[in-house]
Every structure is written in C-alpha cells, then in structure tokens.
Target: Adenylate kinase
Amino acid sequence: MITILFGPPGSGKGTQAQVISKRFGLPHVSTGQMLRDEVGAGSEVGREAEPIMKSGGLISDDLMVRIIEHRLGQPDAQHGVLLDGFPRTVPQAHELDEMLERTGREIGVVLFFDVPEEELKKRIERRSEIDHRADDTPEAYVQRRREYEEKSAPVIGYYEDRGTRIEYVNGNAPIDTVTESILTIFGGQLPARGVA
Ligand code: ADP
Model:
C-alpha cells in the first residue's frame, strides 16, 4: 500500500512521514532526502542535482522516475511505503501509476497538506536558521513555490480525475494535532486498499 504525502514546501510532509513511518513500521521514502544524500556523497546524481536544488528548481522527471523505480524495487518497499516529495509533477504521477500497475500495487491514499502561504514562509524562515538547507534561502523559496504552483499543484487534479482517494489534512496546526488527524483518516491502521 502506497501512501503519498503531498503539499507545498514547508507544509510538514517530512515531519509527519517520520512519525507515521515509526508508528506503522513503513519506510519513509523522501526524494528530497535521497537527493541530499547523493549530494553529500558527491555522486554523479548528486553533482547533477545540487545546483538545481540550490536554486529551488525541479530535477528532471526521467531521473526522478528512475530513482523511485529503483527504491520501490527494494525488498523493504514491498509492503508499502510513505512517499514524501514524489510525485511532484503530472508526468511523475502518471509514471508512478504505470509502475505500480506493473507490479500489482496501488496508491491507498493521497494526503494533501493544506497550509496557508504566510505560515509556510514563516516555517521556511525558521527552518533556515536551524537546518541551513541550501534551498531555504528566500530566493530559492520563491522558486520552489513557483514550481509548486505551476508543476506540482496540478497533481491533485490528476488524482481527482483518476478517482484516487485524496484526504485533506489541516497542516496549519501543532505537529501532534496533525498526526492525530492523519491517524483518524487511517482509522488507527493503514487503508487496506491494494495488495501490499
Ligand atoms: P520541500 O521541503 O521543498 O518539499 P524536499 O526535501 O521534498 O523539499 O525536496 C527538495 C528539493 O529536491 C526540491 O526543491 C527539488 O529540487 C528536489 N526534488 C525532490 N523531489 C523531487 C521530485 N519528485 N521531482 C523533482 N525534484 C525533486
């Protein structure tokens, strides 16, 4: 069973994915973190991704799809994963569906994190003081936001058209409250649609 955490930069997907991942023993697959690890390791992928991430742009769909296909093929991903940061474009969403169909898997639910833009800005500012992430600068944030609106927001329409289950999560609340609302959506357990 695949759970997708979807929302704008700073909406808290990563934070919630960590909590839910522990609770359900499911791998947290964060494409942003995977890319940051590649950058840290100085790999070929990392060298390609670094300047794009730093400017707040998106990595090519081709590369992202290859990365995810490889990750979802790992043994620990066979009973489901929490996908955080992917898909981020409609072509990525489409490729993911095809990939899952080939392997007899399905998306159980898309959790859409709803947070007002003012709050997002504040969170990114605060995070930039703590984490020193290269893309938390004001300039990169503007670009990430633009990419989100142009390329990522349409992903929700894609899932609506496909009839995929989408649940709206009020992300403008304390961390524990957001976790509670996700657990309520799950009814204490992960939605049982799909094989794995
Ligand atoms: P955010 O906190 O902005 O949601 P992430 O940690 O998920 O950030 O991702 C950081 C950066 O990694 C993105 O701004 C983008 O450059 C790159 N990235 C992550 N996932 C994808 C993806 N699915 N497609 C393209 N680029 C991606």
Observations:
- The longest strand covers residues 107-114.
- The first helix runs from residue 13 to 24.
